[in-house]
Q: What sequence folds into this?
């Protein structure tokens, strides 16, 4: 929960992050952001529907990403490839053989977990212990505190940090070597218990393929086995040459796309953080062999800047460099976000080498090469990928935005401080009362604004209650039409975050809003 700096109120922080997370989930339902899928049938595990405000927020996040990626880079174009692909795609990409998660069951609770996530969660707790000690020391020593020195000299902190590092690198090594017995041994040595029941009675660790199978064809005998794509990236790889040729693209260049992906997650949990049907926003950047690590650093920095442009707090992001690399990568990092349940992966940046294009060359028998006129040679390009989950980004925005504030007069308000550029509804137009011609003026304002913005009308209840309702829904502006409007064509415009009100002419509303909701101002 992020606190506003305004002097006249302070944030009432939720007692703990679990409470905060529960609040986010119930707020999402109450204010029309997210519903459980097929709720009238008791829902479907880890599948969610985006409601009227949620669909808008999701669309706005997608657009913010697309514009920054495609419109702001002359050498990146966007495509929209099919979810169903030729099944050999998944043989070539390695998903049939290697897209597995290590699974472990608790014999007492009968609950199923990802073994690596159990270890990562345990490691995070140890890391947080070190952080707590560091923060305590910072409070004690004040200005003169040297964090780096403290980290390397305080015995307790040194031990926490070493334990954290050792357990993650041992896990990475065991997974790399497919040594699942050692993953189980590590869980036992660390005395990791079932998070729900506390039982330590575990089964062996097994591999589980995450792809959803389906069938193409009318009759059972002739049906072809297909998979729902587990990532959008392969739709880009198989179209690499089509796009390069039809777009006359020169290396380096990128192909972007957004779309649904499906994974039969062992444990889908934490609301929309880990879903079975989700959406990705991915970009594959094709570069000269040998230049991939330079571009990898470039995209790490560029993507972090994109996140920071939304103003959700620099302290809420951190990089996590991978120790265990996927079968296709020679460098990889996550941008982690401080979700209500701790820092977790929001986006991945991967240097995927020439693995995918070479594999598709091999399995299709078609050349997927670029003739580089400057080098006068053909080669299979290397690829740097940026991959972010749209639903995870949605959760980051929603959880960061939801705040409870106690105002100067002692009253409280719940406000969703969604960055204005992403807000589902940009303005609510409110006639002060339901007569004297005020609703008609309000409607005329709406008719003008709706050409450029998603706006809404609200005339029910006292205006103060309407303000609170719009605050909680995340609407950045409330425009109130009152009796003075009849006399001088002015309205009050109220800003959600500061609650400040200004008197402006009706003719100035659109421009006033544009200042706060322009892509240029945010992305710059
Ligand atoms: N093409 C590379 C790729 O798919 P990944 O790390 O497996 O890499 C990329 O996924 C991003 O997709 C993640 O950083 C995350 O934001 C999102 N993602 C992955 N699995 C997800 C799931 N089950 N539910 C929601 N988002 C997911």
A:
């Amino acid at each position: 929960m992020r606190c506003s700096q305004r002097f006249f109120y302070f944030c009432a922080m939720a007692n703990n992050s679990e409470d905060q997370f529960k609040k986010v989930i119930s707020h999402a339902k109450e204010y029309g952001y997210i519903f459980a899928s097929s709720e009238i049938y008791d829902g479907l595990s880890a599948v969610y529907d985006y409601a009227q405000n949620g669909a808008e927020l999701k669309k706005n996040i997608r657009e913010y990403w697309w514009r920054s990626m495609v419109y702001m880079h002359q050498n990146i174009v966007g495509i929209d490839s099919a979810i169903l692909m030729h099944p050999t795609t998944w043989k070539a990409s390695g998903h049939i053989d290697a897209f597995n998660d290590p699974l472990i069951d608790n014999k007492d609770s009968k609950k199923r977990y990802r073994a690596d996530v159990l270890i990562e969660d345990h490691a995070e707790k140890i890391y947080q212990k070190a952080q707590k000690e560091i923060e305590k020391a910072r409070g004690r020593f004040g200005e003169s505190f040297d964090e780096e020195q403290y980290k390397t000299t305080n015995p307790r902190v040194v031990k926490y940090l070493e334990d954290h590092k050792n357990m993650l690198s041992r896990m990475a090594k065991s997974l790399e070597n497919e040594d699942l017995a050692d993953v189980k041994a590590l869980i036992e040595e660390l005395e990791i218990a079932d998070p729900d029941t506390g039982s330590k009675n575990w089964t062996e660790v097994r591999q589980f393929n995450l792809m959803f199978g389906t069938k193409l064809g009318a009759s059972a005998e002739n049906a072809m086995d297909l998979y729902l794509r587990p990532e959008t990236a392969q739709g880009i790889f198989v179209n690499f040459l089509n796009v390069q040729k039809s777009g006359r693209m020169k290396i380096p260049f990128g192909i972007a796309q957004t779309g649904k992906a499906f994974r039969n997650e062992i444990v889908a949990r934490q609301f929309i953080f880990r879903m079975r049907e989700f959406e990705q926003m991915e970009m594959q950047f094709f570069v000269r062999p040998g230049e991939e690590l330079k571009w990898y650093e470039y995209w790490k920095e560029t993507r972090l800047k994109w996140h920071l442009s939304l103003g959700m707090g620099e302290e809420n992001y951190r990089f996590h460099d991978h120790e265990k690399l996927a079968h296709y990568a020679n460098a990889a990092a996550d941008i982690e976000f401080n979700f209500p349940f701790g820092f977790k992966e929001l986006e991945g940046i991967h240097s995927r080498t020439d693995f995918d294009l070479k594999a598709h060359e091999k399995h299709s028998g078609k050349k997927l090469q670029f003739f580089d006129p400057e080098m006068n040679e053909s080669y299979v390009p290397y690829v740097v990928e940026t991959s972010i989950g749209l639903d995870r980004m949605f959760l980051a925005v929603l959880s960061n935005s939801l705040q409870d504030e106690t105002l100067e007069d002692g009253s409280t308000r719940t406000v969703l401080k969604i960055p204005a550029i992403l807000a589902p509804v940009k303005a609510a137009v409110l006639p002060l009362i339901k007569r004297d011609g005020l609703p008609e003026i309000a409607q005329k304002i709406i008719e003008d604004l709706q050409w450029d913005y998603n706006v809404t009308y609200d005339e029910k209840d006292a205006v103060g209650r309407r303000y609170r309702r719009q605050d909680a829904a995340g609407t950045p502006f409330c425009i109130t039409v009152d009796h003075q409007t009849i006399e001088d064509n002015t309205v009050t415009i109220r800003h959600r975050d500061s609650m400040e009100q200004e008197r402006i002419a009706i003719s100035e509303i659109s421009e006033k809003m544009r200042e706060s909701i322009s892509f240029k101002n945010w992305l710059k």
Q: What stands out?
A: The first strand starts at residue 10 and ends at 11.
